[in-house]
Write a structure and sequence with these properties.
Elements: H1 2-27, H2 31-76, H3 78-81, H4 94-145, H5 156-177, H6 183-197, H7 200-218
Amino acid sequence: PALFMENARKGSIVSRANSIGSTSASSVPNTDDEDSDYHQETYKESYKDRRRRAHIQAEQKRRDAIKKGYDDLQAIVPTCEQQDFSIGSQKLSKAIVLQKTIDYIQFLHKEKKKQEEEVSTLRKDVMALKIMKVNYEQIVKAHQDNPNEGKDQVSDEVKFNVFQGIMDSLFQSFNASISVTSFQELSACVFSWIEEHCKPQTLRDIVIGVLHQLKSQLY
């Protein structure tokens, strides 16, 4: 009986201990699950923050690039640097900067076209001078090779008639082409007339025509 009572007492103690342990275990929260949920939520929030921050930085870079572009235009285009009294001392708006840039580009296109025309005219003048230079060199060389050839065969009167015939022909076109309304128109017409009627080929045709005419009169 004593042994039986001792085993019963030990079994009762073990049962109470198991009961207390199970109760304590059930009352303790599951910290592992909560930590997992917390870390997952923190990760999600940090990902959103990083994404939002990256978007803000990209947008700021885009705005800075646009601002720098307008600042560069305003520094390059001369008309943007000039004082505009209609807007006072206020900063130029983007619309005004773009319009002034467009106007300046159109102005540059016109200037480029004008310069190309001037270069083309100068090239024609250079070509005409080269042809005249070659002709004069041939005349001088021919005179040096035969200094007495043709001497005293052509009188001063004939020379004057040749010169007069050439000048008369040129004056007819000159008188028909030149306007004397103003000095500006006179200057413009003179240069236009020279380019049109004083080309080497045109002068050559005039001289040949005058020589043929004098030849028929003399012979």
